[in-house]
Amino acid sequence: MSPTVNLLVRNGLTNKGRTILTMMVIAVAVVSFSLLQTAVRSYYLGVEASAPDRLVTRHKVSLYFELPMAYRDRIQQIAGVESVTYANWFGGYYQDPKNFFAQFAVGDSYLDLYPEYLISPDEKKAFLSERKACVVGEKLARRYGWKVGDQIVLKGTIYDGDWEFVVRGIFSGRDRTTDTTPMFFRWDYLNEWVKAHRGHDSDIGWYILDIGDPGAAPKISQEIDALYADSTAQTITETEKAFQMSFVSMTGSIIVAIEVISFMVVVIVLLVMANTMMMTARERVAQYGVMKTLGFQGARLSVVVTGEAIVIALIGATAGILAAYPVIAFFGAFLEMNMGSFFPVFELGPQTVAQAIGLCVLCGLLAAVFPLLTALRTPIASALRKVN
Q: pTM to 2 decimals?
């Protein structure tokens, strides 16, 4: 062990109780920060997982208003549009109103535009050949214990009555960020109900377009919207990412509040470390004088002083990260069974880990400013007067 490292270790263990308590506070703060940031990132998951080569066309006013089915053929003819499918929000619940999850009535080609949903060819074929068939994500199936072949009944809210479905497929996610909490069923089944109860064909909630070339998105969007600029059902065409953000923005203030709280935790870490290092600086004025007489000047003295703060911060951060994994896994399992639609993938990601460690190191550097200035500015003679 080099003399500098040995000195850092000895300095850190001078007051073991205070050092350990400081590390514990940092660890707890890292767990809290990681948990809050994971919640934010999970909520934004749909935005991050959006495909750049998919556009969404919806009613210009809001998603509450629908678009005519006749729009599909004209959109399909736009140069650059390779395929078009469509979907409607269903809005039912399973057994109890608190059992909320996303349900969509979709066109036959819907799954073709979402290769991130992995489903066997046999299950996909069964889904397309049966009127009451549905496919569900693996997390949703696990939440309610559904298996292929099970019959389930949803209570409609937008579309009244009891709706019977048969689970014909369970899809998994191609990527870690793929949302496997929704349910998809045939749009034909919904349209049949609308014609029987409302006397007309169902309109479309929104269209999904596969454009192949993401760079053509602005031009295609403008051309589609121009087609219906004088229509009673004007459109807005946007990237899938922008479409997903429209959902997230509905509760944006809550997410901002969570982010603010998570960074307030970092401020607490900084205050705790600053207090610890200031106490250390007052206790070690004499030690700094001795170190200067032994040749510790400038950069070398800075390494010793700041190194101690960074080591304490890193050890606390490492302990916090190690504790965060089981804590977040526990919350993830709880949320999957109760709020899976809001937090579809709740796990600690590498970006959050790097952010937590980086912020702790930054706190260590800032906390070392006062003791470093004390060490550099205190004259040797003045420091040595404090030696007993």
A: 0.72
